[in-house]
Fold each of these.
Amino acid sequence: MAFVPRFFKPPEGHYYLFGPRGTGKSTWLRHTYPDALWLDLLSPDVERRFAARPERLRERIAGTPEARVVVVAEVQRVPELLPVVHQLIEERSGLSFVLTGSSARKLKRTGVDLLAGRAVLRSLHPFMAAELGEAFDLERALLQGLLPVVWDSGHPEDTLAAYAGLYVKEEVQAEALVRDLGGFHRFLEALSFSQASILNLTEVARDCQVHRKTVEGYLGVLEDLLLAFRVPVFRRRARRQITAHPKLFFSDVGVYRSLRPAGPLDRSEEIAGAALEGLVAQHLRAWIDYSGAQATLSFWRTRGGAEVDFVVYGQDTFWAAEVKHSARVRRADLRSLRAFGEDYPQAKLRLLYRGTETLEIEGVRCLPCEDFLRGLLPGQALP
């Protein structure tokens, strides 16, 4: 597959570029900085040499004086390099560092602020529909997700099936993040039932037969590996009693589909509905990050049961949407959005559905979900 231009815009100066494995960080960086000096810490030999003597980085840069950009790939594998990077930033002008990572765990332990604010944090997400253009296929995206490593694969099902196992082997097991790998695998399967749902860790612990505190630790590992994220409740100036627990999403819908069991007792529409909502969630996260918008992603749910799937709130944005895996819009589908609109009349109300027509019903704009995803462009207002 030819190189796909991304919406991500690099900041000036030094920066961390985080993203789950397979989001195309290395591909994008090699295309953007073809003359950069590279240290790929995924290579066991390179990792071993720099872990043994981090100051080798100084010698490597001195031996390549023409380099203006230094890329350290998967810097979390050798966090001892960060003090050396900090010193070089102080000493060398005209040299930029890009530090990539697919896990924040080691950096959290050693202090991701070790560069004293000299490097900003940025994220690279799975493909957005508009990045793929005509190549985007909604049905394929709902089944396989939008990770470039999967999308570009000649055998996407096999690649996706191995994806979670790759993380467990190379990250969880290698760093001894958990003691019981079997329990962690059961946790991943049990957590897949929480996609796009209120997170109930007690229930997840019961399903995978481990203690609740163990599940909390497992979830922390998963979030540090950038494979899952929580969406908090929107409670600004709440007029009603609001639920307290967040919703959970996997970072890519394909990862969710690869972990979620499907059999005679599983409702296909339930799995498909959670997949569609997850696809919208990952697009909204990417839109917020790539736009540089000072906005937050949340959801709204009252104790009475009214729920709006997504609320995007920022200085210039107040947007709320409900996602329905249905080709028709029913009046009942608008009930929660109308309740939200009563409490927050400033919000733009949207319903995203699987139909083909754009409708306006009782102040709610109903958009075909595929059109919405294709038209979602960072830097432009939400449709």
Amino acid sequence: MMWRKFRRLKLFLLLGLPVACFGQTTGGGSSTASNPLNVYAPPCISQVKQYIAVNCQITPTGGAQPYSYTFTGGFPTGMSVSTGLGGGLINGTPTGITGEQATVTVTDVGGGTAATSFMITPAGLTGSGPCGSSVCVTGAGYAIKTAEGYTITTLATVQMAATTYWSDGSTLDVTSMATWACTPSPQCGSVSASGLYTTGNSVGTYHVTATLSGVTNNGGSGVAVTVATIQAHTKESDRVANSGMVMRDVLQLRSGIPAAVLQKAECVIVVPSTLKFAVGVGGSYGRGVMTCREGPDFQGPWSAPSMMALGGGGFGLQVGGQATDFVLLLMNDRAASSILTSKVKIGATASAAGGPVGRESTAATDLFLRAEILSYSRARGLFAGVSLEGSTLRPDNRANRKLYGKDVSAKAIVLQGEVSPPSSALELLSVLNSKSPSNKSAGSSHQGT
């Protein structure tokens, strides 16, 4: 009986011996078998980027808190690790991109140790984004310059975003970290610290720039934006805006103005008589706008609009109680110069004809191009060429003064570019520049400039 008890005691002691010896760390400390001290490099060190602040905490597991930290090796310029009791924070802002090796050793309260080694190589701000720079600025739905042209939306404010492109192929939104500017100031408006852009008091092309630690989008030239300043609603600005809507609608019609005709026009006059501020009195009077291709040879983009008046009892703006839109194409510079400087009687001072519509053949179209003015009308949803002989056209100088806030002649607006287009003209100019970006007329004398 005693022998059996002795054997059981001996077996118990042999099975318990490993428990007493397990858990000694390589550093000489101790921990329990179920809770060993371990430490690993934090994942965030693989995402370190030049000029971007770093806050990576080394978090040991197991052992007994509190922990203390020491390190050997080095960190990239601008970075370090906190040591001693409660340390382990890798922080700072790296200014270089040279990699450094470091070993961090953690000691728990019981003297147990664990170590981890890692290399930190900051990604450089040397990538190239779609703007050709490592810093790119965008503003969704606004007038941002791209290779394809401008996207125009009339807004008072827009949230700009700055994105950086890095040598490791990654991107980062640095909108809140960038330094923002808009030039020339103050005409362009302002940009807040968070990238919120507010338009100024004039319309033009400006540059919004985001800078991160000396690196600027587009290599310092900034991102060109066409500022669309909100205007007060006046009958003049509404008339300009309505002209843009008429032109857009007309050019979308299958039976509309042939592309070959529009592409040979020097100027366009739109009288949006169906709309609120342009309804004629007794069907004998209408107001609209005139724009011409810029440049001495009419080869540039479409100009700021001049307000125009269309009069005469021969055509009527209302047919059976239905108001009518008119679109006039001026096919040479002589007609344009005459209309911009004086009152012109259509058919007498300038030859006119109802314009062709739809997919006219080139031969048929050329017959119409002999006229100096081609005229069209739209009423009850129907669009057709119409004769306006006997009617008159003249600049509306009073309306120009209200639209632009100063006395400026129609010729100075359209041919000499003395004023920038108002925001209400963006629709009209965008449509014309899109549908007819270049002048394909071969017979203009260009003496009217």
Amino acid sequence: MSIEIRKDTPIDFELVKSNIDFFGHSFIRKGNIRIMRKIVDRVENDSGIKFIRMEMGVPGIKPSQIGIEAEILALKSDVAGIYPPVEGLPALKKEMSKFIKLFMNIDIDAEFCIPTCGSIHGCFVSLLTLGRRDPQKDTVLFLEPGFPNHNALNRILNFQQVAFDVYNFRGEKLRSKLIDFFDKGNISAVVFSNPNNPSWICFTEEELKIIAETAAMYDVIVIEDLAYFAMDFRKDYSHPGELPFQPSVANYCDNYILLISGSKAFSYAGQRIGMLVISEKLFNTRFEKLESFFNMDQFGRALIFGSILNTTGGVTQSVQYGFCEILKAVNESKYYFIEDVKEYGEKAKIMKKMFIENGFNIVYDMDGEELIADGFYFTVYYPGFEGVELTERLLYYGISTIPLIATGSERTEGIRICVSLVARNRFNELEKRLMLFNQHYCQSVKC
């Protein structure tokens, strides 16, 4: 490490070091969130000191009682003894279709709206199915930085992948960069998140149109991850059926898959449910090569009765009932889910200020011509440190994060901060730990 490490830290130095050594530095470099969690859990248990947990991108808001009560009622009706319909309960599919229309202004039939076991499962079955449509198209393009699990899913499937950091290719620059990759003829799908995990950039309408147009030119399927649906709080997407609507590539192309998580915007993470929305054209397209793998060549049927059936058998019956009632309440303006999740943006604004006042800087600071929004994530660096080194050093101060390099970012100096699990009553504690870190290292980096 280039900067001498301080040993007079709030958490016992040897305790933290021994746990990092036990699990291995490589897990931190790879951004393995589960291993980071194990390290922190062990240190907390042995030291009795609670960490400020910012490594996990998990919700920090209580789930709606609407869903819970609907699940209880469903369970009392003995649905636990019946296999769920793999394609989804008709009532749930209907509410999904309504939601897409009301909050995105996109007309999509209920047939093409399928519940999955979270959006990560939706991504898995999408990649699994797309990867079998054409042996010449064996590669997935990831617009980075992004959710590391998406890349991991592709590796599990043993498909090829390429990527680039989209931050340096905003606006019209994005078109030529995409064409450079698509022109090789081997790209099956392009995957991106919007808002972006971890940078929190949001693609403009111009950029979404560019992605759609270039994908259409080269027969590339677009997978848009909308896990943080309507959480760009610079605009108010809370009114169903009214402008503005959640931006989406689906407005500009007809070969798309949308992934909408039940975990973040709806705070329903523990029940593992999400929406997978397939364009009508893609759903009904027949690919000859699918037949040999799925015994059916229609894309939508292969995805449902090939990929979903053989991975999970469908989403748990009671969960579908619960999520159905949540969406119904949202669609009927009885539950304003965006009002609940605005808390993330408010916390991010306060926490960013703490970091900046204590020597840190924002990594992804601009979103096109605008300042980056306050939301679920933000990214920071401390001068003189690489992101992996900074991630490790902060552990000695009771602060857990992940390095940006693990997300495909080219900004190797940065780390990702997730605000969700940091309670407001711990803000003073966070500020004190950041102040001490800055006192310990400010002189070393000549701040």
Amino acid sequence: MNNVRHVLGISGGKDSAALAIYLRMNYPELPLEYYFMDTGKELDETYQFINDLEVFLGKKVTRLEAAQGSPVDPFDHYLTLYGGYLPSAQARWCTRKLKLEPFEQFFVGDTPAISYVAIRGDEDREGYISHKSNIQSIFPFRRNMWSKDVISKVLGSQNRVLLSDLYTNLSDGDVRDAALQLINRPESVQFNQGRKLNMLLDLSISTFNRVVFAALKSIDCPMAGLDSFPLLDNEDVIDRDGVFRLLDESGVGKPKYYEPIEFEHNGQKGFYNRSRSGCYFCFFQQKIEWVWLYEQHPERFAQAMDYEKDGFSWIDEETLAELIQPERIAEIKETHLRSSPQNRTSKSAYLLDLLDESEGVGCAACFI
């Protein structure tokens, strides 16, 4: 594996940390490099969590920053270049400039690299796939660890002969016979590539992995440069509960900002916390999370408010100054209590419910 780099991005959230723990425990032979894209706008709890993870891994997590050499932190540097235009769900320049481009251009460069991405087995999304041909994404927590671009190439109709030969050589008995029927069956609306993929996985995940790995030898991708790959026999599927088990059993634990904090409103008790890693002013936050930031990290909330000027705001329909008016906070808490009644009596149930939101929705977990 000396000619191919193996990299894993740590977002500061639960999933990417759990993946690092899982691979360290089960595949210590992988020469993994860990990195963290530091925007300069993270909570202190994020840095502490990464420090705790480093203790378990026994290896440093490389801190990377965009706009190196700038007199200000990465976010402020690019905010100036964009004329004060704050990022939003419609214009996520922060993701591109603070995370993707520095990772692809400066950390990996033109070296062949396999990027390990923490998309859980219970998530229905693809995750980060680089447009650079020298970076290949792998998803170890999923039943199908291969990225969509790889599957499209390997299972394409032009590869029927190749796949038939590979399944003939790498399998036998019922698996071989059923696989050959699936490979040579014409695709249709009822039998598309996605269904073919799932049916091949149903036959044998490890056999499918070995077939794909062999097929990639004829495709220009980083995996083609490997003589072997230890995850080919991996059939684990790690869901949300599995992520929490990995964090707890390793002793690393969850990031502190996930811990639910009790609040009281009109005689009712509820719990709130942060549901994702990343910048403290992330525009993907729920309203209740903005209230959490205002009440638990007032200095960070004040800094977020300072960015709202010249008509730009973090939230489309209101400014942070409007959000923290007493009557507005009361309204947000009332809505939160009404929509999540279970959190009034069970903070653990609320924690799991809130953490079920995908990290990858926000920019913090672009590689998770």
